[in-house]
Design brief:
By secondary structure, the protein is α/β, with parallel strands linked by helices. It has two domains: about 425 residues, Amidase signature (AS) enzymes (Alpha-Beta Complex), CATH 3.90.1300.10; about 90 residues, no CATH class. The protein is built from 17 helices and 13 strands.
Amino acid sequence: MRSIVGAGALVLMAAAGLGQPGGRTPPSQSPASFSVVDASITDLRTALEQRRTTSHALVSAYLARIAYYGTVLHPALAVSRAALADADERDAERRAGRVRGPLHGIPIALKDNVHTTTMPTTGGALAFAGFTPPYEATLTTRLRDAGAIIIAKTTMTELANWVAGAPTPMPANYNAITGFGFNPYDPRRDPRATPGDGRPVMPTGGSSSGIGTAASLWAANVGTETSGSILSPSNQTMLVGIKPTVGRISRHGIIPITADQDTAGPMARTVTDAAILLGVLESPTRDPNDAATGRCTPPAGGDYTRFLRAGGLKGARIGIPRAYYYEPGPVTALPRGGLEARQVAAMAEAMAVLRAHGAELVDPANLPSIVAADRQRNVLAWTSCAGRGEGRGGDAGCSSVLKYGMKRDFNAWLRSLGPSAPVPTLTALREWNEAHRAAGAIRYGQAALDVSDEIDLERDRAKYDADRARDLQLTATDGLDAVIRRERLDAVLFPGGSGASIAARPGYPSVIVPFAMVPNAPSPPLPAAFDAQPQPYGVTFTGLACSEARLIELAYAFEQATRRRIPPPGLP
């Protein structure tokens, strides 16, 4: 299995004699003795402004940590060879009195489906190993213009987990280039004979990765989400994640699944950091390369920090969707849902905090499409077609939106690469994967790619249109829209990342905040002697389109009232 981790980290590792942690003090401080460990973007900016450190020193410290922890956590698919040179340029600009923006000289990582011309963009697919695209993503340009240093490309589930489907779905944070990523809150392999494939014992969430941000390998990172891939990894690695309204951030230059649901968004250790990053990622004007942009109006000056009010919960109306998300749903023939005992306790405590700080809870605030007795009107009966048997002729009972969008938008992305494209079409990618199966290209198969590739964009358009309309009816009109408007809610409160899917289909925003630690108790159980460590658990505020400002206000007030995030234990 090949690795494309950049030479910068590998050279540093060899020179420093670093690798598997053990016996040495980890490199937590820069030459200027400013520690980057758990340092916020605000901390870094202040230290730079006060000349207590330099961007060169920050990058050096982060590169040392990447080298030290990289072989254990597998946090990156590439590390920038240009990061130190970029840091020197930012330092020179700062000395000359030119500060580009709020991220000037701050190291940020990007998910490896976001184009950069200084590092490969692979999506974790073996067919794209080493591929450097001919143009940068709009959000990459936004970050560079704001002074950010793009230090690395984070590990990810291959092609955002649209490769393998049932009966052998791909585990989160696995890709054919570097294998599995590991959760810094318990970076061990699963010891059980089943599944027995070397996956992490503590899930990392997917398809984005929060590993490096949680472990202080960079200041923050950019993830992408089609359905849960910002919220889930943020939940699993105790980060703040903002999944924005689809269209708020340009998707130009990002390997797609479907333009109907894809979005990029920030992942950070604090709401403040995530708000700063969101303001940079969002363009002030419509991007001509992404027709969805312009759906929402950016705040004045692109500044979301204006909404960071500690008293933001006072008077807020927040809905509690009991059925399915907290307690078993009423329709016995469908998935029942509900929480484990420790999750129940965590959410009860979260609700007590909200009440204590002036929020009014509407409890229950059940979503009509969750409790509907008629299967045709119940969203739990309407999943996305993704696995074997859900191709043409077997997809009447599932939504074709993702598989149709993948055929349409992935091929359009390949065409945008011109002659540099590693493969010309989705069909060619599937053929390449089959030809390189022995090299590990499709360890879990490629059922999702198969059902996408058989789509005929003209002949299957009518079903796609009908399925897209039903998606919106069940998740928006009879889902979030119905309960939020009926109860006049500012937000709906979901446990962990459980509300990701119902918000993803209409493209609605969510903000997740770290809150608790709960048992890691998979089924079948781990061996009693294994001593599984507790795993992070957050709470998510979800609203209607373009409500990010209010959600950030609520999330920040909750964060300040609780301050429950803890760094990974045993990871200095």
